[in-house]
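Usage

Read records sequentially. Each one opens with the input sequence:
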Amino acid sequence: MENLGGAEFAPDATYLNTSTCGLLPLRSVAAVTALLDELAAGRPGGAGDFSAVTAARQSFARLTGVDEGRVAVGGSVSVHVGLIATSLPPGAEVLFPVGEYASVITPFLVRGDLKLRYAPLEGLADAIRPGTALVAFSSVQSADGRIADLPAIRAAAAAHGARTLVDASQSAGWLPLDAGAWDFTVTGGFKFLLCPRGVSFLTVTEEAQRSVVPIHAGTFAAEELWSTTYGPVDDLARSARRFDEPPAFPSYHGAEQSLALLEEIGIDAVHAHDTALARRFRSGLTELGHEPVPGDSAIVAVPGLGHRVPELARASVAVAERVGNLRAAFHLYNSAADVDRTLDVLAG
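and closes with the structure output:
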């Protein structure tokens, strides 16, 4: 199993840490560098081109199966989640998995007037009940790579009239995502989507858009861009673009190229590649006497093995430690040789 990225990447080590931060394709580095060089020289047009933002929005929409009118852009998942949190009425119940990522929970917590409830990931669908306003969860858990039972959660939420918020930061880019099946999705672009930091995406159904107030609306939220520079924006975009944060142009110049690469390769091909490498790693771990978290995720976690991360780093193998787990994440720039190299180090 060779890497799918070909000459698009240039890692100088065995890099299995995409769950922390994905590698940038060389074409993305070139796009960012070109913009920064222009800015250093006094770029006549300002900080960047909104066309790159539009192209990134459109690519993400195609990759996740929704119309671009449902996609808002931003810089961080927590800001998108905060926007959703402000839309809930006082006393609303929000359900999370136990151990969910902090950025999904905290914007609701700081409201101070919402009811937060938790359930094990495996029992999340069963925990949705009448009166649950929103169930918020990651499609793939950051700490251990477990994949949520997406069909069961979606069905239970629909049965009880609960809205859904999916954080796809650990899945978008390798796990096919039907963003239209959920009221809201939020995705950090700097992991499996291979974008620079400062890129994130929010998707909102047309129905849910009516309940969310664009509290950070500015010039980029206008229906006609640049039509209202001074004074209030009276005509907000009639799409999810009214929820845009002001874009970090260098990051989006890179994102345009990164997302184009993923479209060229195809998420189905990336999914098959990544999960095959993860299965090879799980099998090798089992032969070494370790017990990885079961499943068919591109993220592999080994409980109790997190202390080996520094040793692997000294051998130029990049992985992460999360809540005691050794966490390895496989993506299109990895190969079977990376798996075998890592297993060799763990075998001593």
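Summary fields computed downstream for this record:
- The radius of gyration is 21 Å.
- The mean pLDDT is 96.
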